[in-house]
Structures are given as structure tokens and as C-alpha cells.
Design brief:
alpha/beta, TIM Barrel, eight-stranded mixed β-sheet, 11 helices, 8 strands, disordered N terminus, binds iron/sulfur cluster
């Protein structure tokens, strides 16, 4: 069983071995390496119908990158050869990737929990009715972006009119049984701050979201996840443009909590990019920092080894700030 251990050697790899995150781990006597990999996260494309201001992938309508059927087959083969308890499909907007139904149907027997990320709005478009039926039938858990119960804040981050469409879709999902107790159809909401500050405590935020959504719109959901914005991609550009980058990084560094390191998702998750390459997490994927430091394609690897070092850079401080991002 994997656990955080005191630093025994210098094996934790980093793009810059002297990056501040690495130094902070070392000064706290910590080593960040991989344990049993129980979650397979698949980023199936950067194509999205929205272009949110905080997106670390810089997904949007103009992006062409989507996973091919061949790469999907490689991923399915990889999932068969390894034992994952959770498979997490993200993007971009997975809902609008061609062959998403093929991927879901083939992955479903291979893990006890399959999750699909959604921005909610994409589920209202095109052929999404059939996809929702399939998700319901396969009991795919939906993890949906819903940054705020405040229309103005949410629209400022995600685009004009997105909040109203999101509320409509949440009602529709409740109508299908998503988010309701006893249905086995999990509906998780994801919230992130509108600017260069840390999120409020997850339990407090969940109580507020549950109360507001139930009282004002009769909406229920399973649980809320809150996370800090990662200083990468579009959010990093905004931080730099607005003159907030240094102050935000300083806030993340000064909020470093060594207690979060044991539960970091990179210890138990492997990420596969739309073109089939391996990364320790979706953030390293967005930053172009590959698993093990060298590009490794899914078709070249059969099983994952425990104990491999995790690649790090200074944006990792967003995962260890406050109560952390696990
Ligand atoms: S960004 Fe977070 S999840 Fe990714 S390697 Fe760094 S600490 Fe781990």
C-alpha cells in the first residue's frame, strides 16, 4: 500500500529540479511518488463549445484535438490490462467528441465507477439526448461545472447565458434521476473561484450550494467539489495580463499544507491525453510535462509500475494550498 514517506533519496523528478515546489517538499522531508494507480483519467480532446476564462487546457470551439477511434482502442486495451476502480473522462467537452458513446460502452465493464465531466451546456446540444440515455443506462457518474449559485459570477467566468442553461440542465438531470438519493445516478458539481483567490472550504460551500439550489430551483445533487484555479493555460494568461500572477503564486506558496501531499491525486491517477500519451495528471498534460519525463504512448506500455516518481512544477502549489486538491 502506498503512503507518503520521508524523503529517502532524490528520486522525485521535476522539469526544473530546483523548482520551488520541489524545494518545499524537500524542506518538509517529503517525497512525491506514485503508489497503486486506481484511477484512469482520459482527456479525450480540447474541443469544447465554451471557452471558460479559467480553463487550464485552453479548450474551446476552435480546437481541433479529439481522440481518434484508434487511440480509444489503445486506451480500452490498456484499461483491460490494468485494474482501475475509477475511470474519469474529461476534456474539453467529452460530450461532443465523436465516438464518445463507443468509448463509454467499452470502458464501462472495466471499472466499478465511470465518471464523465460535463460543462452542462454541451449536454443541451446536438445528439446529447441519446448520450444522456446511454449515461443513465450505464450509470455513468456526471461531474459537472457549476462555479457559482450566482448568475453574474458564473456567466463572467463561463460566458453570457451559460448559467441559465446550466440550471435548465440540472433540472433535466434531476428529472432523469441524476443527483437523487437511491437512484445510483451520481451528480457531482464542481466549483472554482472567479478570480485570483483560494476557494472556500468544501463542506461550507457544499452546504450553501445544496441550500440555495434546493430552495430556489428545487435542484438536488450528490456532492460538491471545490478547487483552486491552476496557474496554467487561459487562467495563467489572465493572471499575467491583469498583473496578478506573482501575488497569486505567492498566495499558493504561503498556503502550502504538507498534510495534503499524501492524498494528492497524482499518487493514484494516470492521465492519458487525446493523442494517447501518459501524464501524472491533467495539469502536467496541459503543461506538456510527461509521465516519467519522456513521452510514453499508451500503445507502448502494458502495466504501470508502482513507485515511479511524479513530475512536478510550481503550479503544483495549487494542489497543496489550504485543504488541497485531491
Ligand atoms: S499539479 Fe497537482 S496533481 Fe499534478 S503533479 Fe502537481 S501536485 Fe500532483
Amino acid at each position: 500500500m502506498f503512503s507518503v514517506r520521508k524523503k529517502l533519496n532524490n528520486s522525485t523528478k521535476a522539469r526544473d529540479p530546483l523548482n520551488t515546489f520541489q524545494k518545499t517538499l524537500t524542506s518538509n522531508g517529503l517525497l512525491l511518488d506514485r503508489g497503486i494507480t486506481s484511477t484512469l483519467q482520459i482527456n479525450i480532446g480540447h474541443l469544447c463549445n465554451l471557452a471558460c476564462k479559467h480553463c487550464h487546457v485552453e479548450a474551446g470551439p476552435g480546437r481541433q484535438e479529439v481522440m481518434s477511434r484508434q487511440t480509444m482502442d489503445d486506451v480500452i486495451h490498456f484499461a483491460r490490462n490494468n485494474s482501475f476502480s475509477v475511470i474519469d473522462i474529461t476534456g474539453g467537452a467529452p460530450e461532443i467528441v465523436p465516438d464518445i458513446a463507443y468509448l463509454l460502452e467499452n470502458l464501462c465493464p472495466l471499472a466499478s465507477k465511470i465518471m464523465m465531466r460535463s460543462n452542462l451546456v454541451a449536454l443541451l446540444e446536438g445528439n446529447s439526448g441519446k448520450l444522456l440515455d446511454l449515461c443513465q443506462q450505464l450509470k455513468i457518474a456526471l461531474v459537472v461545472s457549476f462555479p457559482s449559485t450566482n448568475r453574474g459570477q458564473a456567466d463572467a467566468q463561463r460566458g453570457e447565458g451559460v448559467w441559465d442553461k446550466s440550471i435548465s440542465m440540472l433540472k433535466k438531470l434531476n428529472g432523469l434521476g441524476y443527483g437523487l438519493k437511491g437512484t445510483g445516478l451520481d451528480l457531482y458539481l464542481v466549483s472554482n473561484p472567479a478570480g485570483a483567490f483560494l476557494p472556500v472550504d468544501q463542506c461550507t460551500a457544499e452546504r450553501k450550494f445544496k441550500g440555495d439550489l434546493a430552495r430556489k430551483w428545487g435542484i438536488e445533487f450528490t456532492a460538491l467539489y471545490t478547487f483552486a484555479n491552476i496557474p496554467l493555460g487561459r487562467f495563467k494568461k489572465w493572471l499575467e495580463k491583469s498583473g496578478n500572477y506573482d501575488a497569486y503564486m505567492q498566495k499558493l506558496r504561503s498556503s502550502f499544507n504538507p498534510e495534503t501531499v499524501e492524498g494528492l491525486m497524482c499518487r493514484s491517477l494516470i492521465n492519458i491525453s487525446w493523442d494517447g500519451y501518459l501524464y501524472d495528471c491533467d495539469f502536467n498534460m496541459a503543461a506538456g510535462l510527461p509521465y516519467s519525463g519522456e513521452p510514453v504512448h499508451i500503445s507502448e506500455i502494458k502495466v504501470l509500475e508502482n513507485g515511479a516518481p511524479v513530475m512536478t512544477d510550481d503550479y503544483c502549489f495549487a494542489c497543496t494550498a489550504g485543504t488541497g486538491f485531491t
